[in-house]
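Supplementary Text 2. Reproducibility record for the structural model of the 371-residue chain.

All settings were left at their defaults, and a single model was retained for analysis rather than an ensemble. We include the record here because the model underlies the residue-level annotations in Supplementary Table 4.
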Amino acid sequence: MEMTSIRLTLGEQAVRLAHRARETAEVAEKNGRADPDFIAQLREIGSVTGPSSHVGNHYPLRDVLELIKMVARGDGSAGWLAMIYLTSAVGGHWLGDAGRDEVLADGVRTLVAGVLAPRGRANTVQDGFYLSGQWPFGSGSADADWMGLGAVIDDEPERTGVFFIPRAEIKTLPTWQVVGLRATASNDQVVEGVFVPASRVAYLDGPNLTGEAIANFPIFGLLAAGIGAVAVGIAEAAVGEVVELSGAKTPTGSNRRLVDRAAAQEAVARAHAGLESAWHYLDRAVAVTEIANRSDKVRLRLAATNAMETSRHVVDSLYSLAGGSSIYERSPMQRLLRDIHTASQHMMVGQPTWELTGRVLLGLETDPPGL
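Retained model, structure tokens:
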């Protein structure tokens, strides 16, 4: 009954989360950590992509991405955290019953984060592994209950797994001194010889153990789609800021308001068209019930990367249009610029994706790793 109630109010949750994110964005950035009330609200839908046996029925992925976009419109860091928490629990589909029972003991309220890159080393022992390593870009680590950390097993590069560790067993290094997305607290995570039972290791290169549709999306494509949603939300916020600013601002050296200038009118129109197109492309790419063939995988990665690139161009152009007032810390435009450029550095939506998908489209590779 509780799960049904949550499902019916997803749109309301999105509005509430976006509002709280906007209200607390400035303080969260200064603190380098998300607002506690925002995190508490996010827990109500936290592990929504996890196994339905533990989190209830899934929302359509399109609805989850819409929520992420709305939250990012309120604040880029909050949107990024929503993306991390709402998608990371998908790894639970590769855990057996005992592992799911332990990691998702609190059901949908569990917050899972992680770093899939196999930067750790796992040595096999009886009933499990000893894990050590250091993982940068640990987004969401500050408030996560569990983290899934990628590692190479027994120094054999072809053997990798994602090891689920309680947050209390992980050391955080204060490395997140960055230009944007500061409130994500994406610090380095360190594990030193921690025992991980075999039941808490997910092998993402094998078949998932639930067969549920959400787990049949390619894991990299799911992550890329979430990042694309964050990007579009940030860019939509920039459009809103410029629309509000343009009616009140008269640029230096001009006797006309910004809203009356042809350059502003054209820039806002182009921004709307670009973002609507990018979002429609991404929405169509994730509308497929089960992405299994190469064409669907390519479309998903292209749509997410296009959403990022389009959003970055929109924010860049509107930041320039806003003029000198946009450089001050009191202007949301400077934070939007910093956030979108930080997000755009993620490898899932960066320039290499164009090369990866281009090779497939040109027939040079059939189904390369990383797609």
